[in-house]
Design a protein that fits this description.
- The structure holds two protein chains of two kinds.
- Chain A contains 13 helices and two strands; from the N terminus they run ααααααββααααααα.
- By secondary structure, chain A is mostly helical.
- Chain A has a single domain, classed as Ammonium transporter fold, CATH 1.10.3430.
- A two-stranded antiparallel ribbon of chain A has the order 1-2.
- The longest helix of chain A has 24 residues.
- Chain A starts with 19 loop residues before the first helix and ends in a 15-residue tail after the last helix.
- Chain B is an alpha/beta fold.
- Chain B is 29% helix and 19% strand.
- In chain B, α5 crosses α8.
- Chain B is globular, with a radius of gyration of 22 Å.
- The chains are: A mainly alpha, B alpha/beta.
- At the A-B interface, α1 of A face α7, α9, β15, β16 and α14 of B.
Chain lengths: 330, 446
C-alpha cells in the first residue's frame, strides 16, 4: 500500500458531466428547426448561405488560432453557432463574398481579437451583421420574394423590401403569414433567412427551455417590452404600428430575443440583470423602429445592451444568503 | 403530499448511496496499535495527560486542554502508552499523537457510570457532554458542549438534528438512524431537556425514506417532528438546513444560536445518549468505506485511533489500484497522499476513486453561462470572484462577499468549462479573512 500513486487536489472531487461542447450542441439542435424552415421557405440558396457562413466562421477561427499558436478551439462548436446565427440574419440572395466578409468580422474582429470564446463583449454574429449592413446596405435590404434554387432555370428573382418598410404598410401580411413565414400562395414572407418563421423559432425556444440551456427571462422581457411599447407609442411612430402582436412577430424580434439576446457570453448572469437586459433590448428596438432611420433595430438594440452588460451585472449582484440590511442610515 | 423542505441554489449529484445504505454496520476487528492525535476537533489542541509506559483503561481520558474551544480525548481500548510523537493526520500535517498498544482486554475505566439525565440539573449537561469528548460528528468536529452553552440560552427555542447527509456516497448517519433510532431520539431529548424546551426536529433528506418512516414511528408521541428535506447538495449546510426547517436566515458572521436554533448531527446525538445511558465517552465512529477500487463497500463501526491502512487491509485491500483516496465525501472531503493516518472523531467516510474517476478535467474559458451564480446557495457570483481571486484583487473579493462562501463546491461542480472556481475562491477567502483580522487588530490598538 506504500507505493500507491494517489492524486491530491482541492475539492470538489466530482464534476457534473457537461461541457461547453454540450451547451453549443444543444443550441445547434435548437437552431435546426429554423434552418429547415429557411430551406423550405427560401429554397436551396438559403442552405448554401448557411453552409458558406458556417464554413467561413469555423475556418477563420481555426486559421486564427493556428497562426497565433493558440489552443485550437473549433472543437467547442461555438463557431458553428456563430456561423448559423450570422447566416440567419442575411437575405437568402446575399452574395457569397459578403457572407465571408461578415464571418471574418464576426470571428476574427469581434471574438478572437478579444481573446476567443467567452471573452468577446459583443455578440459576434450581430457584429458581423451590422458590419455588412453598414457596408452593403442595398444587398442586405433586398429580400427575395420567391424560392431561389442553386441552379435556376431563369436567372431573374423577384426581390423587394421587408414588411417593416413604408411600402408595405397598406398591404400588411396576416398574422398567420407572419407566424409561418409564408403567404397563402406559397411565396415566402420577405426577410432574412432565419427571422420569418416564428413557429420554427418557438420550437427552438421550447427545446432550449426544456434542456434548461436558457431561462425564459430575456426572451419574455424583450418581447413583452416590445408589445407594451407598441401599445403605448405605436400610434405616434413615424410609420404607425397598430397591432402589437404583429409588431412582435415582424422582423428579427423573435430570432433576436430567443437566440441572440440569450447568448451567455454577452448577457448578464443575474436574474434581475437578465430582466433589465431584455427590457432594454425591447425598448431600444422600438425607439429605432418607431422614430429611427432604420426600419429594423434588433441588432443595434442587442449590441448596445451587450455593452451595458458588465454594468447591469454590477447593479444587480445578488445579496448573500442571510443578508440583513445594516442598521442606521436612512 | 407536502412539498419537501429546501433552499434556493444547490446541485443534484448522483448520491451513490445504494452501494452501502442497505448493508448493516459491521464491527471492525480492533487493531494492535492505535494512534490518538491530540487534535481531533475544531479549536485548541489538547495536551497529553498520560506518559509513555502508563497503563490506560478503555474510556480513560488521555488528553485535555484548558482552552475554551476544545474537547478531551479518550482511549478507545485498554493497554499501554508506547509512544507520544508527531504523526501524520488527515489534513496532511503532523500532529502530536499518543500511541497505545492494545492488550485486547477492553478493561473499562472506573469513571464509567450511567447518568440519569432526568434527575440532574440541566445546567450540568454541557459539562457532562464535554467530559465525553463529544464533537460534531458530521465532519466539522466543533465541540458540542459549546453549542449547548450559548451566550443566552433562554433564546434557544428549536433543536434540529441534522440527518440530511447530503454528501454523496456517505451512509453512516443513515445506518445509525436505522440501527439505533432510540439513541438518536434519546440524545435529542437530552439536548431538549438542557434548554427546557420541546421543539425538536429530525431533518432527513427524501432519499432515505426508510429512515424517515422509522424515525416517524419511533418519534410518535414524543412531540419530536420528523421533517422531510428535498435531496439536494448542500442541504446539510447548517445555515441552509435551518432555513429549510424554520425559514429563519442566519446572517453572515452570526451563529445558529442567534436565531434561536441549535443544530446537532445524528451521530453526535447517539454519542451524547451513550454517555448518559452507559457512561462511555466518544470512542467509536461509523466509517463508510466506499468506491469502485475497494474490494468491499460497507459501513464499519471503528474504534477511534484505528489506522486507515488497517481498515483497508481488513476490508480486503483494493480490487484495482486507486487514483485518489478521500477522507469524507466527494464534495468537501480531503484527498490523501498517504494512508498511515488514524480515524479521528470526524472521519465519516473513506472514499476511493479509480485513476479514471480521479482525473481532473482541463480548465476552459468561462462562457458566462451563469450556472455557478444559479447554483451558489449563498447567492454569490463565483465567476467574478474567481477572476478577482486570480488577479489578486482582494478588495473586490471582499466587496463581493467572498467571506460568505461556504466552500460547498456547487460552482465548480456544475461548471461546463470545468473552471477551478471554489478552489480559487477558497484561497481568496483565507486572504480576505486575514486582512480583516489585521484591520480589526489595528482598530483595537489605534
Amino acid at each position: 500500500m506504500e507505493n500507491l500513486k494517489l492524486s491530491v487536489s482541492s475539492t470538489p472531487h466530482i464534476r457534473e458531466k457537461n461541457s461547453i461542447q454540450d451547451v453549443m450542441l444543444d443550441v445547434i439542435i435548437a437552431l435546426m428547426p429554423v434552418a429547415f424552415a429557411a430551406v423550405l421557405l427560401f429554397g436551396q440558396r438559403a442552405f448554401a448561405v448557411m453552409l458558406v457562413s458556417v464554413i467561413s466562421c469555423v475556418g477563420f477561427e481555426w486559421l486564427y488560432t493556428a497562426l497565433t499558436h493558440q489552443k485550437r478551439t473549433i472543437g467547442d462548436f461555438s463557431a458553428v453557432v456563430t456561423g448559423l446565427l450570422f447566416a440567419f440574419c442575411l437575405p437568402a440572395n446575399v452574395p457569397y463574398y459578403i457572407v465571408v466578409i461578415g464571418a471574418f468580422v464576426a470571428i476574427i474582429v469581434a471574438k478572437q481579437f478579444f481573446g476567443g470564446i467567452g471573452q468577446n463583449f459583443m455578440n459576434p454574429a450581430l457584429v458581423g451583421r451590422v458590419f455588412v449592413l453598414a457596408s452593403f446596405p442595398v444587398a442586405l435590404t433586398n429580400f427575395p420574394w420567391d424560392k431561389i434554387n442553386l441552379f435556376p432555370k431563369t436567372a431573374e428573382v423577384l426581390t423587394g423590401a421587408t414588411p417593416l418598410s413604408k411600402e408595405w404598410v397598406d398591404a400588411a401580411p396576416s398574422l398567420k403569414t407572419q407566424f409561418l413565414g409564408v403567404f397563402e400562395g406559397g411565396a415566402p414572407l420577405p426577410g432574412c433567412i432565419g427571422e420569418t418563421c416564428a413557429l420554427a423559432i418557438l420550437i427552438g425556444l421550447a427545446y432550449l427551455l426544456i434542456r434548461k440551456v436558457i431561462s425564459i427571462r430575456i426572451p419574455l422581457s424583450f418581447v413583452g417590452s416590445v408589445f407594451v411599447m407598441t401599445l403605448l407609442f405605436g400610434n405616434n411612430a413615424v410609420v404607425s404600428v397598430q397591432n402589437p402582436l404583429a409588431a412582435v412577430l415582424s422582423g428579427g424580434i423573435l430570432l433576436g430575443a430567443v437566440f441572440m439576446a440569450t447568448d451567455y457570453v454577452t448577457t448578464p448572469t443575474t436574474v434581475w440583470g437578465q430582466v433589465i437586459f431584455g427590457i432594454g433590448c425591447g425598448v431600444i428596438t422600438c425607439i429605432i423602429r418607431f422614430w429611427g432611420g432604420y426600419p429594423e433595430g434588433v441588432s443595434f438594440a442587442i449590441l448596445l445592451m451587450n455593452i451595458l452588460t458588465p454594468l447591469i451585472e454590477k447593479w444587480t449582484a445578488p445579496k448573500p444568503f442571510g443578508y440583513v440590511k445594516e442598521r442606521g442610515g436612512k | 403530499m407536502l412539498k419537501h423542505l429546501s433552499f434556493k441554489g444547490g446541485v443534484h449529484p448522483n448520491d451513490n448511496k445504494k452501494q452501502t445504505s442497505g448493508k448493516k454496520i459491521e464491527i471492525l476487528e480492533v487493531p494492535k496499535i492505535l494512534t490518538y492525535p491530540v487534535q481531533q476537533h475544531l479549536g485548541a489542541p489538547c495536551t497529553p495527560c498520560v506518559q509513555v509506559g502508563d497503563y490506560v483503561k478503555m474510556g480513560q481520558k488521555i488528553a485535555d486542554s484548558d482552552a475554551f474551544v476544545s474537547a478531551p480525548i479518550h482511549a478507545s481500548v485498554s493497554g499501554t502508552v508506547i509512544d507520544i510523537k508527531p504523526c501524520p493526520v488527515w489534513n496532511g500535517t503532523m500532529v502530536e499523537s499518543i500511541i497505545i498498544e492494545n492488550d485486547f482486554t477492553d478493561t473499562l475505566d472506573d469513571s464509567i457510570k450511567p447518568i440519569d439525565y432526568m434527575s440532574i440539573d440541566p445546567d450540568e449537561i454541557p459539562g457532562i457532554v464535554r467530559d465525553a469528548g463529544v464533537v460534531g460528528m458530521g465532519g466539522a468536529t466543533f465541540p458540542t458542549h459549546i453549542k449547548l452553552n450559548p451566550p443566552d440560552k433562554s433564546k434557544i427555542d428549536t433543536i434540529i438534528i441534522n440527518a440530511a447527509e447530503c454528501e454523496p456516497y456517505i451512509t453512516s448517519d443513515h445506518r445509525v438512524m436505522l440501527e439505533t433510532p432510540e439513541e438518536v431520539i434519546e440524545g435529542l431529548q437530552i439536548i431538549l431537556k438542557r434548554f427546557g424546551i420541546t421543539n425538536g426536529h429530525i431533518a432527513i433528506e427524501d432519499n432515505k425514506p426508510d429512515a424517515i418512516a422509522l424515525m416517524k414511528e419511533k418519534c410518535a408521541g414524543t412531540g419530536i417532528s420528523v421533517d422531510t428535506l428535498k435531496k439536494k447538495y448542500p442541504q446539510g449546510s447548517e445555515k441552509h438546513l435551518i432555513y429549510a426547517v424554520t425559514k429563519r436566515k442566519v446572517a453572515g458572521g452570526k451563529l445558529p444560536a442567534d436565531v434561536g436554533v441549535i443544530v446537532v448531527n445524528v451521530d453526535t446525538c447517539t454519542a451524547i445518549a451513550r454517555k448518559f445511558k452507559y457512561g462511555t465517552p466518544l470512542m467509536r465512529r461509523i466509517v463508510t468505506v466506499v468506491g469502485t477500487p475497494f474490494e468491499k463497500e460497507v459501513n464499519y463501526n471503528v474504534r477511534i485511533g484505528t489506522g486507515i491502512d488497517y481498515i483497508i487491509e481488513k476490508n480486503g485491500g483494493f480490487r484495482e489500484e486507486p487514483g485518489k483516496v478521500i477522507i469524507g465525501g466527494p464534495m468537501m472531503g480531503v484527498a490523501q497522499f498517504r494512508l498511515n493516518i488514524p480515524v479521528i472523531k470526524g472521519t465519516s467516510a473513506l472514499l476511493a476513486f479509480t485513476p479514471e474517476e480521479a482525473k481532473i478535467p482541463p480548465e476552459e474559458n468561462c462562457i458566462r453561462c451563469g450556472k455557478c451564480v444559479k447554483n451558489c446557495p449563498m447567492n454569490l457570483m463565483p465567476l467574478h470572484l474567481q477572476q478577482y481571486a486570480n488577479a489578486d484583487n482582494m478588495e473586490a473579493c471582499e466587496k463581493y462577499n467572498v467571506t460568505s462562501c461556504i466552500e460547498c463546491g456547487c460552482c465548480s461542480y456544475g461548471c461546463p468549462s470545468k473552471r477551478q472556481l471554489v478552489q480559487s475562491i477558497r484561497i481568496a477567502k483565507r486572504k480576505v479573512m486575514g486582512i480583516q483580522r489585521e484591520r480589526a487588530q489595528k482598530g483595537r490598538q489605534g
